[in-house]
Amino acid sequence: MNDRSVDWESRVKQGLFPEEVFSSDMRRQVMDTLDRRPGYFSRQWKFLAGAVVLSFLSVIVAINWSYEFTSKGASGLNDERGMPVVFKPLIATEWEEGETNNQADPDILPGLSNKYNPLRNKTNGHIAQIPYSDIQLLDEKPIEGFGMALHYTLKPDSLTPHETNGDVDYFGFTLDESSQPENLYHYGYGHLYDLQFSMTRLFGQEVLKIEGANCRTDGESCVWYVRKDSDGQVYSYISLEAASYERDLDGDGKEEAVVVTRKRNQIYIFKEQDGQLLWSSVRETLGANQDDSIQYDDASGTFTIHSILGEGKYTDNVYAYKEGSDSLIRRDNRGR
Length: 336
Known about the structure:
The protein has two domains: 3-81, no CATH class; 84-335, no CATH class. The chain is built from four helices and 19 strands. It has helices at 3-14, 24-35, 39-81, 282-286; strands at residues 83-84, 88-89, 129-131, 135-143, 147-154, 169-175, 183-189, 196-202, 205-212, 222-228, 234-240, 243-247, 256-260, 267-273, 276-281, 293-297, 302-310, 313-321, 327-335. The two termini are 58 Å apart. Keywords: Membrane, Transmembrane, Transmembrane helix. The chain crosses the membrane at residues 47-67.
């Protein structure tokens, strides 16, 4: 056996995947066949046969490699590495006290009906306090962990200005520490009193959540978050014109807002960083096309993309945040 035969044998072995074995039996069969030919032709045929075998096995390797790569690209690769959730600063007009929404103004994001930046500060989120003696109390109920919700009208001779003519009812609240308050927070109109109140956490802060399902004529929900600062100041923190859920998706100890719209079937994830909102589109992250629908399940913190394949077939891919990162990995696949 000359060096050239050893050389092509090693090259063939190096080109194989671990599961493809160039066995001693394979080698013996090739060499026995070649050794039956006379001297000069034997050497030439050994070399040519080596090249043929190498080419043949290279095709096998290429087919296997192509299959493995395609298979992983369609399922395993994204499952292992995750699809990055990219956040961008929200560019939106800041709301100023006294301004009202103009429906002709553009939405801040596709499908999200807010016209102004949802995030407020202590200035543009200021909640006025009025004398408790100015109100005629209609009803009250406790907000566990926060204070008391109040439903009231203003007395005719109140120091607080009446916003409109007539007997308008209002909603406000007092804090837990005010058992006999001199003042109350005068928040809005009376219909808010019938909404759902709960204490939750958002962006790492404890907040009061006021939630109204189907509060808009287009069927969207409305959510307001009220924050009490460490110095005791209470102000509007963020308002969203769509359903909103709070969840620490990336495990950094700060809860993101997962905002789900009916309009245009959008899901946005919001973070707060140094007084600025950052946002990411789940539709964009998952690569959903126009015919795909997406859903968020707050109980499991998962996102599902539903795709119609045609001929009565569909597929649902379920994704969740990869622990400790801003990326989505596939958790489940089902369909028919």
